[in-house]
């Protein structure tokens, strides 16, 4: 397509009839009002287990939502990355923690030790959906934890908090390829610091729970880490690397949207609808290692496997 190339799409297809589906999508595009065409740049970048295949497609269509619509219609939920330039490896990885690099929402799990999980989890869900102001929702939830024994944090970490499948391989592989990894969360340093050490992050930014006399006070200690913080950290880290540095970001909730939109490759992982719509990368069915496949990093070059 030469100079008319506008969008590159990579997707992981797990359909046995993916070639048929691809041909059907081409035919649909040719008949559609947008009048787009699609070329298969690489029939198979890499064979994956269970007959999966990574496809790279080229569209002469400058409408990401339309491209995603065509992919969803013909391939169903799949892991996808859209880009307007050739896909390269990032130099910076900035990620959310809760429900992204770990499989839980820490504040919800901690609330269970105070007998308040259902009440707090409802507020968390509404905040992540973008229905509530994040700062107000955070302050409200932390206040409800006032009086909880500080020892519940260590117990919660040991009993409840686990990495998301593929999280360690993703982080360690990116680091092995020269990427700086930063964990930035609306959650708490009590959890984020050990999680970052476990997964191999270089820096942690988050909120701090105030403690007095071995119990949570129901307040925060220091400034609030929220959506604006996540964006500011991404911009600060990217600036330190110099102009043109490729940035990868991942998250799942509404407070991740600004950093997802600012990243070169902004991935929504099993995300809430608003975050998913804002992202140019979507992991809807695989684990976090799907990001590595979509970036073009071969499995033989993965670390921590």
Record field, number of beta strands: 12
Kindly provide the radius of gyration, computed on alpha-carbon positions and rounded to a whole number of angstroms.
20 Å
Order of the strands making up the biggest sheet? 2-3-1-4-12-11-10-5-6-7
Protein structure class:
alpha/beta
- What portion of residues belong to β-strands? 15-25%
Largest sheet: 10 strands, mixed
Query: If you average the pLDDT, what whole number results?
Result: 90
Shape: elongated
Q: Which runs of at least 5 residues are low in confidence (pLDDT < 50)?
A: 41-51
Number of helices: 12
Amino-to-carboxy terminus distance? 38 Å
Estimated helix fraction: 25-40%
Structure overview:
Helix content is 40%, strand content 21%. It is α/β, with parallel strands linked by helices and 305 residues long. Helix 4 runs antiparallel to helix 5 (134-144). The chain starts with 6 loop residues before the first strand and ends in a 10-residue tail after the last helix. Mean pLDDT is 90; it is low at 41-51.
């Amino acid at each position: 397509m030469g100079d008319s190339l506008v969008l590159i799409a990579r997707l992981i297809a797990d359909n046995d009839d993916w070639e048929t589906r691809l041909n059907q999508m081409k035919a649909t595009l040719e008949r559609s009002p947008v009048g787009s065409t699609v070329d298969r740049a690489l029939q198979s970048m890499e064979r994956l287990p269970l007959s999966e295949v990574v496809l790279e497609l080229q569209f002469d269509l400058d409408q990401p939502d339309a491209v995603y619509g065509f992919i969803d219609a013909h391939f169903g939920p799949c892991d996808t990355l859209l880009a307007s330039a050739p896909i390269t490896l990032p130099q910076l990885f900035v990620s959310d923690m809760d429900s992204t690099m770990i499989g839980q929402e820490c504040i919800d799990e901690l609330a269970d030790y105070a007998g308040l999980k259902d009440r707090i989890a409802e507020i968390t869900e509404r905040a992540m959906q973008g229905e509530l102001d994040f700062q107000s929702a955070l302050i409200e939830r932390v206040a409800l934890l006032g009086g909880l024994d500080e020892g519940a944090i260590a117990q919660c970490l040991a009993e409840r908090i686990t990495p998301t499948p593929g999280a360690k391989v993703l982080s360690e592989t990116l680091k092995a390829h020269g990427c700086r990894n930063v964990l930035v969360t609306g959650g708490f340093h009590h959890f984020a610091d050990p999680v970052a050490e476990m997964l191999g992050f270089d820096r942690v930014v988050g909120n701090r729970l105030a403690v007095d006399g071995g119990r949570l006070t129901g307040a925060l200690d220091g400034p609030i880490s929220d959506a604006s913080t996540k964006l500011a950290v991404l911009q600060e880290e990217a600036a330190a690397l110099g102009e043109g540095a490729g940035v990868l970001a991942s998250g799942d909730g509404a407070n991740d949207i600004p950093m997802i939109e600012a990243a070169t490759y902004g991935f929504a992982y099993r995300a809430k609808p608003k975050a998913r719509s804002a992202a140019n990368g979507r992991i809807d069915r695989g684990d976090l290692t799907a990001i590595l496949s979509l970036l073009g990093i071969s499995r033989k070059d993965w670390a921590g496997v």
